[in-house]
Please model this.
Amino acid sequence: MCGIVGLFLKDKALEPQLGSLLTAMLVTMTDRGPDSAGIAIYGEDNPAISKLTVQSDEPEQAFATLEKDLAAALGGAVHLRAKDTHAVLEVERGQLSAARALLTKIAPDIRVMATGDTVEIYKEVGLPKDVAARFDLASMSGTHGIGHTRMATESLVTTMGAHPFNTGPDQCLVHNGSLSNHNRLRRKLQREGVHIETENDTEVGAAYITWRIQNGATLGEALEGALNDLDGFFTFLVGTKDGFGVVRDPIACKPAVMAETDQYVAFGSEYRALVNLPGIEQARVWEPEPATVYFWSHQSPSTPTKKAA
Amino acid sequence: MQTIDMETTALRDLNATLQAQAETTNQTTWEITNPKGSHAIAVGLDAPIDVTVKGSTGYYCAGMNKQATITVDGSAGPGVAENMMSGKVVITGDASQYAGATGNGGTLVIKGNASSRCGISMKGIDIIVHGNVGHMSAFMAQSGNLVVCGDAGDALGDSIYEARLFVRGSVKSLGADCIEKEMRPEHLTLLTDLLERGGCDAKPEEFKRYGSARELYHFKIDNAY
Model:
């Protein structure tokens, strides 16, 4: 099992409530995944900055001089915002990859959870309600976000095994299901030079998408490729700077429910996760089709793309 | 009419109350409010009572039903009316995957669409779907009738035994050993009755019948990989 939730806001008036709405959806999915939880939230797009979300098991020590050290190494302004085991480092836009490279030198024990202009990822081991409280997720505002509650089957219950997985700048992925060809695919991707950290199957799925995009595929093409190259069960929810996408494997035994109103598009592993959203009684509620890539974007009209099973 | 509010009544208490209704009960009409997608609502009933769930349900609503008439005034999650023995279950919205799975008897009416694996391993249940059904519907269906007023997805009736499948719209593909069969007068009579029980105004003549070619009953080396 595992639970997935996602919320894409069309109505700007709801943006201050994104964190609280998404947190409530996440906590409802505790039965499907009590081992760990995580959330990716896309906030305000400040054109002057980009962000790295980092994590440490010893945050006080690790984050104490990080802001100063990174600023000195980078030769530019850095702002650090610590939240429990995570911290968001804001750097000047354009300095993201430089900052990431420097971090591995000046703070090698720090794990990078996310990079991008607007995304922040928070994930830890524990019950979803406890994870949400540690990071005060309910107070966050944003345009859209995705979340995951994990019931581990394929690898250990660790912070790095928790979802969402960052697949590239402002891109992330959550997964319900289990991939059966992840060992072979991991070896293949590692031969291609892709960095994969854990034994987790989803990390391989995320790395696959990253690798496809690095080689010129669009996200939509990468997801269609996943239908051919990933063996196993999956419902993926993918966050991007503009919105989110959904794709299910051709068998589609992992559940998925969507709801759309004039105010939002919502995703849940079960309808239960959606019942407290505003106006849900009037929402159009449906199940996404198998082997079909769906996208909702702030930039362009939404398009489901049917892929032959 | 009795009303049970799931905001204030625990699921187990609700089911225990409904399961305790005997054949001789005079409390025949029940309404369940605030289901909010909860799982296993109104399961294991065995009395000729009338239960209406006001809203959408989660997994396994109306499972193992005998005698009762259960209406979901909304959509139903996976496994609705699983292993029904008798009675009637009506979904006014859509049904998720494996609706009516393994049903031995009774009638399941879905007024919207049904998702994948509708009627998987059905053993005598009658299922009437006003809309479409998803892929692998009636997989290994053994007996009973599946009526689809809309379209059917991939691999309809894969490895089917003796169930009868009636589809008005298109069939994306037929599963192994499932073929189109002639519609004889007795099938039109049967379908007329099924459509009436399902509250459908579709005409029996608009349907095609599918069933087993009976080629998988005995081992044939040609079927081995």
